[in-house]
């Protein structure tokens, strides 16, 4: 039965990921060099490093984030029924995250930890070319385990969406596999974002097995998909991924994206944007747009065009979540 026609559905998309509060600040390349940061990468740091680096940042903007959580925020902005599973501590950042995601209308019931590591936060340095360099303290995220996966939520979601970043904490791997098994046992779909080429390099063989065993819809950018299959060209990566998943949606920055499904190949142009201000969240919101139309049974080209429209909205301002109603943008563009 189609993903769009099951009658026992509570949610269109349920996301499982790191519950993080982002701190964004503008910086130049010289600042990144002075701080010893690798431009464009996501690097995991400990609590002491996070505190020291935070003191060296310029004026910042604090807002709830996390890759899968950003995608779920986008689904909610499009008018989709959304849920999120992710761990926070009962501290100030944790309370901010809980408030922000629930205020969007997202179902969020993961209990906050009373003790242990602080709520995760990501220090994001945005350079003038709109690239983001992320230093992430995972904190309470590493405490996410199989016991936090609510079977009823996953079983009643058309698609459960996973972020590759979640594969770093060991206990979260058990949680991911549990969610995949519940979803498929109930005839649902699993979507995965590879998240970051460095993340792929850390877990290549495990990701390949996860994709082969459990993933229906794969999201990756050009660098990530090439890293996954250890090839030197995007065309070679296309051939490598073909047949391994039902759908592959592969983004290429200003070159747009390519969507594969069975024998279909769709080349999707980027949506116009007045100025690229901050690329944070572009892939997350691409996934939101794609999944919103995918769960409604729309064709692959329409899924890709809405995905590009959502990505364009978020890169036009600072921050990884939409500032304009995506539902209104989609309606104006005749993409829903």
Structural features:
336 residues, nine-stranded mixed beta sheet, alpha/beta, five-stranded mixed beta sheet, 39% helix, UDP-N-acetylmuramoyl-L-alanine:D-glutamate ligase, 14 strands, 12 helices
Give a quick precis of the structure.
With 336 residues, this protein is α/β, with parallel strands linked by helices. Helix content is 39%, strand content 21%. The chain is built from twelve helices and 14 strands.
| Name of the level-1 CATH class | Alpha Beta
The name of the CATH superfamily reads Ribokinase
Number of strands: 14
Distance between the termini: 21 Å
Structural class given helices, strands, pairing? alpha/beta
The total count of helices amounts to: 12
Rough outline: globular
Q: Please give the largest β-sheet.
A: 9 strands, mixed
Work out the helicity level.
Answer: 25-40%
What is the correct CATH architecture? 3-Layer(aba) Sandwich
Alpha carbon gyration radius:
18 Å
Neighbour order of strands in the largest sheet: 6-5-1-9-10-11-12-13-14
CATH fold name? UDP-N-acetylmuramoyl-L-alanine:D-glutamate ligase
Q: Give the amount of beta strand, in percent.
A: 15-25%
How many individual domains? 1
Question: Can you put this structure into words, describing what you see?
Answer:
The protein is globular and about 50 Å long. The model has no long low-confidence stretch (mean pLDDT 92). The protein has one domain: Ribokinase (UDP-N-acetylmuramoyl-L-alanine:D-glutamate ligase, 3-Layer(aba) Sandwich), CATH 3.40.1190. With 336 residues, the protein is of the alpha/beta class. Strands 6-5-1-9-10-11-12-13-14 form a nine-stranded mixed sheet. Strands 3-8-7-2-4 form a five-stranded mixed sheet. The chain is built from twelve helices and 14 strands.
């Amino acid at each position: 039965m189609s993903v769009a026609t099951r009658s026992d559905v509570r949610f269109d998309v349920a996301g499982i990921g790191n519950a993080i509060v982002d701190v964004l600040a503008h910086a130049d390349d010289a600042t990144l060099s002075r701080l010893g940061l690798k431009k464009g990468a996501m690097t995991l740091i400990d609590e002491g490093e996070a505190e020291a680096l935070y003191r060296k940042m310029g004026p910042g903007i604090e807002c709830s984030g996390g890759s899968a959580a950003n995608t779920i925020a986008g689904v909610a902005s499009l008018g989709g029924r959304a849920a999120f599973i992710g761990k926070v501590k009962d501290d100030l950042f944790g309370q901010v995250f809980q408030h922000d995601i629930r205020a969007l209308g997202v179902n969020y019931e993961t209990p906050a930890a009373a003790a242990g590591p602080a709520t995760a936060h990501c220090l994001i340095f945005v350079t003038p070319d709109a690239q983001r360099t992320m230093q992430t303290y995972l904190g309470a995220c590493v405490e996410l385990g199989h016991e936090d996966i609510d079977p009823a939520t996953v079983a009643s979601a058309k698609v459960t969406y996973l972020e590759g970043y979640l594969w770093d904490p060991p206990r979260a791997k058990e949680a991911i596999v549990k969610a995949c098994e519940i979803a498929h046992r109930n005839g649902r779909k699993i979507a995965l974002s590879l998240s970051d080429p460095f993340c792929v390099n850390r877990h290549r063989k495990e990701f390949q097995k996860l994709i082969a065993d459990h993933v229906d819809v794969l999201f990756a950018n050009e660098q990530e998909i090439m890293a996954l299959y250890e090839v030197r060209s995007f065309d070679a990566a296309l051939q490598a991924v073909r047949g391994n998943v039902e759908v592959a949606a592969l983004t290429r920055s200003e070159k747009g994206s390519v969507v594969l499904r069975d024998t279909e190949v769709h080349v999707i142009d980027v949506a116009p944007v007045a100025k690229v201000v901050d690329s944070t969240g572009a892939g997350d919101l691409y996934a939101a747009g794609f999944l919103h139309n995918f769960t409604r049974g729309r064709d692959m080209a329409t899924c890709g065009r809405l995905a590009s429209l959502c990505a364009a909205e978020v890169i036009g301002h600072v921050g990884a979540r939409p500032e304009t109603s995506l539902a209104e943008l989609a309606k104006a563009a005749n993409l829903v």
